């Protein structure tokens, strides 16, 4: 009889599992971190799995025992005893407090360790080469990527060599924003007058969707970009091409960036009617420090 | 300030949604204008129909003297819940439009413009938290808690009315914002600098600021009122550790209200200083820092989550025990767990912004604190399961919600543990995964709890049960509607879809948004069924009548009173000798009446106009401030202290109900009970159930 009672939750769990499988299958097309393309995202997926497995210890009893209890003690066709005054059992009490507590201790220990490992301010642990530094400024509704070492800048495209990690310094010239490239890893806020950091890396060459996740007005849904991990040689030529054919970073460019508009509006303003990417032949290095350092300078 | 804003301030014709239709370019703008105008039209029409009906039926006088100026905790409780149903209808409609937009807007365009969409998610969140959930639970506590502790009213009955009217004032402001646009686009949390004048100079954020400020003031007063009531107004013998669990959760929620609402009031007030008087508290420049706002807001915002969920936990405790025909398992553990949750809720607020760039040490500490809350919450789940163990479980309508809650809330808890990990949050923050998580806690946790409580205590308040057939239909639609609407959002969140997105071009998201829309449709159906249930129950109230007042074989004091209870609740203050006071009394065949010479005159508070007056002043002031009508704002603001001082001069504040009247009423009730046959639980959902129960242990022994 008990075995029969246990059958009830299974269809539910099976359907949940199916939904999860389906989600991860479709995730592949939708730039999900479940389809990790870098060490940070991969570590996040493994952490996610670990938590789910450990949490089964406290979740499965609820799913298994509730139907059993309802069947066994159902009014009118109960099989179990009736003890209306029964209200305490030391054994159950110890289990109810103790098991979740032990699970939280284990999960907490893992949490502490992983949070430190994946601190977005730390260089990516697996990286073998020094990072490419990119200064990122959030505007309404586009991101400007400045390459101080390479002396170029871009909007709509964040290129980097696949064999090197990237170190992003972020700030915002407008309201708060949040930069996320799901398949590579973490997100972090960008705020005016402040500097935040994000360290990421890709496993190999590829194109990954990135975007702002913090609502900032009507152009919000268009504030996306492509992170392109390139073969080292390709990155060199990308830089060379930006230097040679990119636009000058002049007052006109700056005004167009500050104007509220999407990356498409920016191209229109700069007289480039089609495409989604803008390259600049110069890196406005002082600009980032000026915006990010506003709090210190008191401007 | 030479410009007094006379007569219209910054209010122009653009504020009327119809103007969006006139100025529309292209299909989406036109549809958006039509949607907005339809909503405004529905609000105006609804208000007009209500006015006409009240006038036609000659209800103005009873409405004023029996309801609006009443300080009876039971009537105030009912008004809170009616208000929350009205607001639920609107916010649900908005949710449906948003789900629709995410289906039809998958290639851009759709039925609402991005700014309109942003207003929808801002009002949806603001209403659901401040004007649906809070009034619902406040109304529930208002009605039930004084009855459970054997009191005749709350400690401060007039303040109770003021709290209600302040909350309603905020709700009116939200309804006005439908007709005179725009509302804020900054979400329910209103983060600056986006909501600062530099980025959003219009009326939207001001509407939000004043609506929320009114509600937060009302809630602070409510918290003080409930806490003092529970501390000071318990009947003889009702020690703290004998209080029903619902009252315990009401106490913890009140404490949280007292400590958590002021940070919100201050946050919105400081934001108002920025917007109105050019302060630089949260601005980008001038030394402002928006991170201070985030801290203040979530210092309120996280305890708020537990303000919302704890009363529902109280309802669940009553439901599991009553419908298992058994005393609650682990009472002491549940009290400790409730208190532990209340205390821990103040130690976790940083988890709302793990991604703001603080150190790993700080994030990890707050992450672990967050997971710790899972321990007492888990204990509660297990204790409710153990309450069914060795009981006799009736799958009544409230119990159906309760069982669904056990499963669904556990899933929500699981996703909460995931989000508590900064590493996972770095991916899922600001995505639909988070949206799915908090709806997963708030719908099966809070809303199901409130509907279960509404189903359970409705017969107490009105003297007849809610029709069960429609009750089950609504419950199944809520359960499957919830799963349909929010499980896909977990998937979408893991697939990287951000929250608050009006349009997108990622094809893989589309099927999931279609399923979510179907789920939302089912939820709209569930809400409709609740309304049908109410209609059918009122129609069939003779069949469903339970005048003896104990339809479910209840365990706490309120079930020993007639349904509906008299204004003075108890004929004499009961003397309580243990937990489950009424269940014990029933077993011995006694009732709550005193001995024959034990009746005394009862002093009850008289009606007061202060509440409606403060509510009207609050509404007017908020509206005047939003639209810069300084000529109106100034006198209204000056009137507030005048009215409060005038209230202090009221001397004739009590009325006396003579002892003989109380005695006659109670004797009539006992005579009715004596001639009403007692029924077993088998007849619970039949017309034989007139509210006179055979206690389950007696039934089982027969």
Taking the alpha carbons of the first and last residues of chain A, their distance comes to 76 Å
Biggest sheet of chain A, open or closed, and with what strands and sense? 6 strands, mixed
For the secondary structure, the number of strands of chain A is: 11
Overall mean pLDDT of chain B stands at 96
- Measured by DSSP, the beta-strand proportion of chain B falls in under 5%
Strands of chain B, total number? 2
Question: Per DSSP, what share of the residues of chain A sits in E-state strands of 2 or more residues?
Answer: 15-25%
Supply the number of structural domains of chain A: 2
Question: Overall mean pLDDT score of chain A?
Answer: 89
Instruction: Give the oligomeric state.
Output: heterodimer
Radius of gyration of chain A: 26 Å
User: CATH superfamily name of the largest domain in chain A?
Assistant: Cupredoxins -  blue copper proteins
Described by the principal axes of the CA atoms, the overall outline of chain B is globular
DSSP helix fraction of chain B: 55-70%
Percent in helix of chain A? 40-55%
For the largest beta sheet of chain A, what order do the strands appear in spatially? 8-5-1-2-3-11
What is the tally of helical segments of chain A? 9
CATH class of the largest domain in chain A reads: Mainly Beta
| Uncertain spans of chain B | none
The succession of helices and strands of chain A, N to C, reads: HHHHEEEEEEEEEEHHHEHH
Membrane topology (chain A): Multi-pass membrane protein
Transmembrane segments (chain A): 46-70, 90-112
Domain Cytochrome oxidase subunit II transmembrane region profile (chain A): 25-122
Domain Cytochrome oxidase subunit II copper A binding (chain A): 129-241
């Amino acid at each position: 009889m008990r075995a029969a009672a246990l059958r009830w939750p299974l269809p539910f769990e099976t359907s949940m599992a199916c939904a999860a499988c389906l989600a991860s299958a479709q995730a592949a097309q939708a730039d999900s971190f479940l389809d990790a393309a870098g060490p940070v995202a991969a570590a996040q997926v493994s952490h996610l799995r670990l938590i789910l497995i450990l949490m089964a210890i406290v979740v499965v009893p609820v799913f298994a025992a509730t139907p059993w209890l309802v069947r066994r003690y159902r009014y009118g066709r109960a099989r179990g005893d009736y003890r209306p005054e029964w209200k305490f059992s030391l054994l159950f009490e110890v289990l109810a407090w103790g098991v979740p507590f032990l699970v939280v201790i284990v999960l907490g220990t893992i949490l502490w360790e992983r949070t430190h490992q994946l601190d977005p301010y730390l260089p990516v642990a697996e990286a073998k080469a020094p990072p490419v530094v990119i200064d990122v400024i959030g505007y309404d509704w586009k991101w400007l990527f400045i390459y101080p070492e390479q002396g170029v800048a871009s909007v709509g495209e964040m290129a980097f060599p696949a064999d090197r990690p990237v170190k992003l310094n972020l700030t915002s010239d407008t309201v708060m924003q949040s930069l996320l490239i799901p398949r590579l890893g973490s997100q972090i806020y960008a705020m005016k007058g402040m500097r935040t950091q994000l360290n990421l890396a890709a496993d190999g060459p590829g194109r990954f969707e990135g975007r702002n996740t913090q609502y900032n007005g009507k152009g919000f849904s268009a504030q996306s970009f492509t992170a392109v991990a390139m073969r080292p040689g390709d990155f060199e030529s990308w830089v060379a091409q930006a230097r040679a054919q990119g636009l000058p970073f002049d007052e006109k460019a700056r005004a167009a960036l500050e104007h509220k508009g999407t990356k498409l509006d920016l191209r229109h303003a700069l007289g480039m009617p089609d495409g989604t990417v803008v390259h600049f032949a110069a890196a406005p290095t002082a600009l980032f420090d000026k915006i990010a350092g506003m709090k210190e300078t008191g401007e | 300030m030479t410009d007094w804003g006379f007569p219209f301030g910054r209010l122009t014709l653009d504020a009327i949604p119809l103007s969006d239709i006139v100025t529309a370019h292209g299909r989406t703008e036109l549809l958006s204008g039509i949607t907005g105008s339809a909503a405004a039209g529905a609000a105006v029409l609804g208000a007009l129909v209500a006015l006409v009906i009240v006038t036609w039926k000659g209800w103005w006088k009873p409405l004023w003297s029996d309801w609006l100026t009443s300080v009876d905790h039971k009537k105030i409780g009912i008004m809170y819940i009616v208000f929350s149903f009205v607001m639920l209808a609107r916010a649900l409609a908005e949710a449906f439009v948003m789900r629709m937009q995410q289906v039809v807007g998958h290639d851009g365009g759709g039925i609402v413009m991005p700014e309109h969409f942003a207003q929808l998610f801002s009002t949806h969140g603001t209403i659901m938290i401040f004007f649906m959930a809070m009034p619902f639970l406040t109304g529930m506590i208002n009605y039930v808690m004084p009855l459970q502790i054997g009191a005749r009213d709350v400690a401060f009955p007039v303040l109770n009315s003021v709290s209600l009217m302040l909350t309603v004032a905020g709700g009116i402001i939200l309804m006005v914002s439908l007709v005179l646009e725009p509302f804020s686009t900054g979400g329910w949390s209103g983060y600056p600098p986006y909501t600062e004048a530099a980025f959003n100079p219009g009326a939207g954020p001001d509407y939000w600021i004043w609506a929320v400020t009114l509600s937060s003031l009302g809630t602070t007063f409510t918290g003080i009122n409930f806490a003092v009531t529970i501390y000071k107004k318990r009947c003889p013998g009702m020690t703290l550790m004998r209080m029903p669990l619902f009252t315990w959760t009401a106490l913890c929620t009140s404490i949280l209200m007292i400590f958590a609402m002021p940070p919100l009031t201050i946050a919105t007030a400081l934001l108002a200083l920025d917007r109105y008087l050019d302060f630089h508290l949260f601005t980008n420049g001038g030394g402002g820092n928006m991170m201070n706002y985030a801290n203040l807001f979530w210092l309120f915002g996280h305890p708020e989550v537990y303000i919302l969920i704890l009363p529902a936990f109280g309802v669940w405790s009553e439901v599991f025990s009553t419908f298992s025909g058994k005393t609650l398992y682990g009472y002491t553990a549940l009290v400790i767990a409730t208190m532990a949750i209340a205390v821990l809720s103040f130690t976790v607020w940083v988890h709302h912004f793990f991604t703001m760039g603080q150190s790993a040490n700080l994030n990890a500490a707050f992450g672990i604190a967050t997971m710790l809350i899972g321990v007492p919450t888990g204990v509660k789940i297990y204790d409710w399961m153990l309450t069914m163990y060795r009981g006799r479980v009736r799958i009544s309508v409230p119990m159906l919600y309760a069982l669904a809650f056990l499963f669904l809330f556990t899933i929500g808890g699981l996703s909460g543990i995931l989000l508590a990990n900064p590493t996972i949050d770095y991916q899922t923050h600001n995505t639909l995964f988070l949206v799915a998580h908090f709806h997963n806690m708030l719908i099966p946790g809070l809303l199901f709890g409130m509907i279960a409580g509404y189903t359970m205590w409705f017969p107490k308040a009105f003297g007849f049960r809610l029709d069960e057939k429609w009750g089950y239909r609504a419950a199944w639609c809520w359960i499957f509607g919830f799963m349909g609407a929010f499980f896909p959002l977990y998937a979408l969140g893991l697939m990287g879809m951000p929250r608050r997105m009006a349009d997108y071009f990622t094809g893989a998201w589309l099927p999931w948004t279609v399923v979510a829309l179907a789920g939302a449709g089912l939820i709209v159906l569930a809400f409709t069924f609740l309304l049908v249930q109410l209609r059918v129950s009122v129609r069939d109230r003779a069949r469903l009548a339970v005048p003896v007042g104990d339809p479910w074989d209840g365990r706490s004091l309120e079930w020993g009173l007639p349904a509906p209870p008299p204004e003075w609740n108890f004929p004499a203050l009961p003397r309580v000798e243990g937990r489950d006071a009424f269940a014990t009394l029933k077993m011995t065949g006694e009732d709550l009446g005193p001995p024959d010479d034990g009746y005394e005159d009862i002093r009850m508070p008289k009606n007061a106009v202060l509440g409606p007056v403060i509510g009207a002043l609050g509404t007017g002031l908020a509206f005047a401030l939003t639209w810069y009508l300084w000529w109106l704002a100034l006198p209204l603001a000056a009137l507030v202290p005048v009215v409060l001082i005038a209230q202090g001069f009221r001397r004739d504040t009590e009325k006396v109900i003579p002892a003989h009247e109380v005695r006659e009423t109670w004797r009539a009730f006992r005579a009715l009970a004596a001639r009403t046959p007692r029924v077993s639980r088998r007849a619970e959902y039949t017309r034989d159930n007139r509210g006179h129960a055979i206690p389950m242990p007696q039934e089982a022994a027969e």
